């Protein structure tokens, strides 16, 4: 009787083991959900300013500040809203801000905090990486916050973000924007698993097809598990963009159209659409790539080149690039398709109607102002004065070319729509300051000619991304002589840009004005002569802020958004609308640097369970054999 029971138990265990194997196979190795998203509700309340204190050894802090460009991790203790996390890794991070601050008297760096750097089991309530952005080149402190808010409202896979009062060793260091790192927690919240491949764009990641060899794409960096990344999926995407065939088979078209529309409408040139062709991520899931929003501190005209051209246009919505449109196949391929182009126009109209042309931004800036004003007043490392903060919300501020540190000197391109400055700008055409009258459309005129001149200057990248696309970009970098203060005359106001872009986009969508450079050229041939002359002084693009080196910041949920009209009133709440993460359940971010950690953990759990079942089976079998042996004796 006992033998029968043991036999029945063994049979049950065999069935159970087979079930585990079957479930594991069907799931496609997607892994067991081991994450917590508690950090979202606990820390990322956008109606509040979180408080972060970084405790770091004085010698480590000094070394980090003096060698900021190296971006080396230091050990620190980080306390977030009273919760202490010891033995974490912290380092400087950034792009233009890192170079500029390092070459100035300021120590207001952006920081990257890895909670699992030295303790792989540690996280901040599920979050393993936190970025602290220093609001570089943004006197309003609002550009990135507002742009991320719009991205989330429009359904893009937006990282969590909130303002943070950052202190170092107990002393207030500055008001920062805390942004979730694009790690496992982010991917779980937005895509439901972390088994896809994540790619980060470096300078010149134009996505032009240049063969199937991954060595030809040095500026598209694998951020997930490099050993398991399937590069053939990338080349399939690039081929489809090159031929215009089967694009939807390899690309989440909607995510790209929304990103293009947002960058265009909010004049974000420090992006894929600018000369540096960076500041975006691609996430591949089941062979389909999504474009992820990233780095918006220079939106609303903060990067430069936002003045009006000879025909009165500040941007052409159907040619929204600083280089030749064909050099940005992710845009050109989609806009050649009338269906995609129509959808893109619909997104532009949505942005104008809901955000730029409504009271949304006025209400948002008022709400944000009231939230952060006391912190800005006391900010000891601010790049700009408090008066400039107040003014830049609505209008342009003048930058100082003489100040090499402190509160000024990070000025960018002038948002100039005053005809009175035309003559002065002509006199400066031989200087290395950027003429504010030059725009996106003007940079296209000499992109091809510059490509020939600059090809010899490229390092051994051996790919189309690093030659055809970046050739014109190098010219802009030659203009950078000193770390601060030479970026341009003024920085446009957030609401000023919104009003101007609202009018411009409406006019182009209605056909009242041209939406392409080519059409405008034929209609304004007399203006082109002046534009070409001015072009010679700008080297192919609006000059970026001083110190721009073109390096993409290392490593930085799509919730059900609800009706954005709820936010367009005086009592609007800046926090995310309540909803469930997209097809994700309760996920968060817990784990280390590799995107394969969830898969590894799932294998460990399932493997352990299987081993346990097999061990019990072996014990039972041994007992049966032992009984048989005893009976036989």
Major sheet: arrangement of strands: 1-2-3-4-5-7-6
Q: Helix proportion of residues, in percent?
A: 25-40%
- DSSP strand content: 5-15%
Q: Could you tell me how far the N terminus lies from the C terminus, measured between alpha carbons in angstroms? A: 19 Å
Helix-strand makeup class: alpha+beta
Largest sheet: 7 strands, mixed, barrel
Q: What is the averaged pLDDT score?
A: 75
Q: Which residue ranges are poorly predicted, with pLDDT under 50 across at least 5 consecutive positions?
A: 23-33, 305-312, 401-488, 526-572, 577-603, 628-633
Number of helices: 21
Rg of Cα set? 27 Å
Instruction: Give the overall shape.
Output: globular
Chain oligomer state = single chain
The total strand number stands at 13
Short structural description:
The protein is α+β, with helices and mostly antiparallel strands. The chain is 39% helix and 12% strand. Helix 11 packs across helix 18 (494-510).
């Amino acid at each position: 009787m006992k033998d029968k029971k043991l036999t029945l138990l063994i049979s049950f265990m065999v069935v159970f083991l087979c079930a585990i194997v079957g479930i594991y196979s069907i799931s496609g190795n997607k892994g067991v959900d081991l994450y917590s998203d508690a950090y979202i509700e606990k820390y990322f309340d956008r109606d509040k300013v979180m408080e972060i204190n970084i405790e770091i050894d004085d010698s480590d802090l000094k070394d980090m500040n003096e060698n900021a460009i190296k971006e080396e991790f230091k050990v620190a203790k980080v306390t977030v809203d009273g919760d202490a996390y010891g033995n974490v890794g912290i380092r400087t991070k950034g792009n233009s801000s890192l170079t500029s601050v390092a070459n100035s008297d300021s120590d207001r760096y952006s920081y990257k905090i890895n909670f699992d750097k030295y303790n792989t089991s540690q996280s901040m309530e599920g979050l393993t990486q936190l970025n602290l952005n220093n609001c570089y080149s943004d006197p309003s402190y609002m550009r990135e916050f507002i742009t991320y808010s719009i991205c989330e409202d429009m359904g893009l896979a937006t990282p969590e973000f909130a303002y943070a009062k950052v202190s170092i060793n107990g002393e207030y260091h500055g008001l920062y924007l805390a942004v979730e790192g694009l790690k496992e927690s982010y991917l779980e919240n937005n895509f439901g698993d972390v088994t896809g491949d994540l790619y980060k764009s470096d300078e010149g990641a134009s996505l032009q097809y240049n063969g199937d060899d991954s060595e030809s794409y040095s500026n598209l960096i694998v951020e997930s598990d490099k050993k398991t990344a399937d590069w053939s999926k990338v080349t399939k995407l690039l081929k489809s963009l090159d031929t215009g065939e089967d694009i939807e088979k390899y690309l989440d078209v909607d995510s790209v159209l929304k990103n293009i529309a947002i960058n265009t409408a909010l004049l974000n040139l420090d992006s894929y659409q600018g000369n540096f062709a960076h500041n975006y991520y691609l996430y591949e899931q089941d062979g389909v790539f999504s474009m992820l929003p990233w780095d918006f501190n220079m939106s609303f005209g903060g990067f430069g080149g936002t003045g009006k051209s000879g025909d009165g246009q500040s941007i052409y919505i159907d040619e929204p690039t600083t280089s030749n449109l064909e050099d940005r196949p992710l845009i050109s391929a989609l806009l050649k398709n009338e269906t995609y182009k129509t959808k893109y126009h619909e997104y532009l109209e949505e942005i104008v109607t809901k955000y730029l042309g409504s009271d949304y931004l006025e209400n948002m800036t008022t709400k944000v102002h009231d939230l952060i004003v006391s912190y800005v007043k006391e900010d000891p490392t601010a790049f700009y004065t408090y008066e400039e903060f107040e003014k830049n919300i609505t209008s342009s501020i003048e930058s100082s070319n003489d100040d090499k540190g402190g509160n000024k000197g990070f000025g960018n391109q002038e948002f100039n729509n005053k005809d009175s400055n035309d003559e002065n700008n002509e006199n400066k055409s031989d200087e290395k300051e950027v003429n504010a009258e030059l725009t996106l459309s003007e940079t296209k005129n000499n992109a091809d000619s510059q490509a020939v001149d600059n090809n010899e200057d490229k390092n051994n990248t051996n790919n189309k991304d690093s030659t055809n696309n970046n050739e014109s970009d190098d010219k802009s970098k030659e203009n950078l002589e000193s770390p601060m203060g030479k970026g341009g005359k003024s920085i446009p106001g957030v609401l000023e840009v919104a009003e101007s872009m609202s009018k411009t986009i409406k006019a182009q969508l209605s056909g009242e004005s041209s939406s392409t450079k080519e059409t405008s050229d034929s209609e304004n041939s007399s203006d082109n002569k002046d534009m070409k002359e001015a072009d010679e002084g700008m080297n192919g693009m609006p000059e970026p802020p001083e110190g721009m080196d073109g390096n993409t910041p290392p490593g930085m949920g799509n919730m059900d958004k609800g009706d954005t009209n709820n936010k367009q009133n005086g009592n609007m709440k800046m926090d995310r609308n309540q909803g469930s993460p997209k097809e994700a359940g309760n996920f968060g971010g817990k784990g280390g640097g590799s995107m394969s950690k969830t898969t590894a953990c799932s294998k460990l759990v399932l493997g352990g369970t299987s081993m346990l079942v097999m061990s019990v089976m072996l014990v039972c079998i041994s007992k049966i054999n032992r009984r048989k042996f005893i009976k036989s004796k």
